[in-house]
Design goal:
With 289 residues, the protein is an all-alpha fold. The protein has one domain. It has 13 helices and no strands.
């Protein structure tokens, strides 16, 4: 009953409530926060988004691929985008900061490298240089978009929200490309340093969020109680997602690629002979088999 009472106030546009701390009222892109009983019915049917996803599907599927693995990578990446941007997770991210962090981690840590493996945009990505800079820019954006002012601006404004999503996703794809498709040993080594550094500072951000004495994002004082959480508890869960899951994934992938790369470097020169200017890559070489 308490959840329905708060939800009813949200739907009527009342601006003050004991759990809202007299917060300003506005409608996020994915709609008002809802309680658990209603979440599965919340789908984002924005025609512009659906059209963009359809264009991506058609254009990406027509892209020439040489392996079944690449086609599967593209399909999975596309499905993950639909799940995070169209499915109930979109509305849940309006209610919970932890859900927003989950949405972002799925996009930048799973969907982005899958798009790289699929070969989408390879002609443009091959022009990229300076992996350390790309990982640094991506890291700055991760911090920026989870700070109070930029984050709340994205909740209030649809254009800013899409700038947030686009910059995080595009810089993630660019950064992952330098790790998964390096031109030479130097690029791979700098990309490995970049992803290790990203793992460290993402863990730092997660720890700061986890141990902060108060919630950073005022809007989640509205949504979190609908899920029997305080805004601070919600933020602590988000911090743990960054600190434990996000940090571990970056670190684990980097260690795996480093280990495979060092193993390849120990092989006989004839067995690892490759054209000048390329490096045997531990991940993509396996996918091409």
């Amino acid at each position: 009953m308490a959840q329905r009472f708060v939800l009813g106030k949200l739907q009527r546009g009342i601006r003050k409530d004991s759990v809202m701390n007299e917060l300003p009222y506005w409608v996020p892109y994915c709609g008002h926060p809802v309680n658990p009983e209603m979440i599965l019915a919340q789908w984002n049917l924005d025609p512009w988004l659906l059209g963009a996803l359809l264009v991506l599907l058609i254009g990406g599927w027509r892209h020439k691929r040489t392996t079944t693995s690449q086609r599967a990578a593209f399909a999975l990446a596309w499905v993950l985008l639909v799940a995070t941007l169209v499915g109930p997770l979109c509305n849940l991210a309006s209610a919970l900061f932890g859900a927003r962090v989950t949405q972002h981690l799925i996009m930048i840590q799973i969907a982005a490298p899958l798009f790289v493996i699929s070969g989408v945009g390879a002609a443009w990505l091959r022009k990229l240089r300076h992996p350390s800079l790309l990982w640094a820019v991506h890291g700055v954006l991760i911090w920026l978009w989870h700070l109070p002012l930029p984050y709340e601006a994205a909740l209030r404004s649809v254009p800013i929200l899409w700038i947030m999503h686009a910059t995080l996703m595009l810089t993630a794809i660019a950064a992952w490309y330098t790790l998964l498709c390096p031109r030479d040993d130097a690029m791979l080594s700098r990309a490995l340093l970049g992803v290790f550094a990203t793992s460290v500072h993402l863990g730092m951000l997660g720890a700061i969020l986890t141990f902060a004495p108060e919630a950073w994002h005022s809007y989640h004082h509205i949504g979190a109680p609908l899920w029997n959480l305080s805004a601070l508890q919600d933020q602590q869960l988000a911090g743990l997602m960054m600190w434990v899951v996000g940090c571990t994934l970056y670190f684990g992938v980097a260690l795996w690629i480093l280990g495979r790369w060092l193993q390849r470097l120990d092989l006989d020169a004839e067995r690892v002979a490759v054209p000048v200017g390329t490096v045997p890559h531990p991940l993509l070489d396996d996918l091409k088999r």
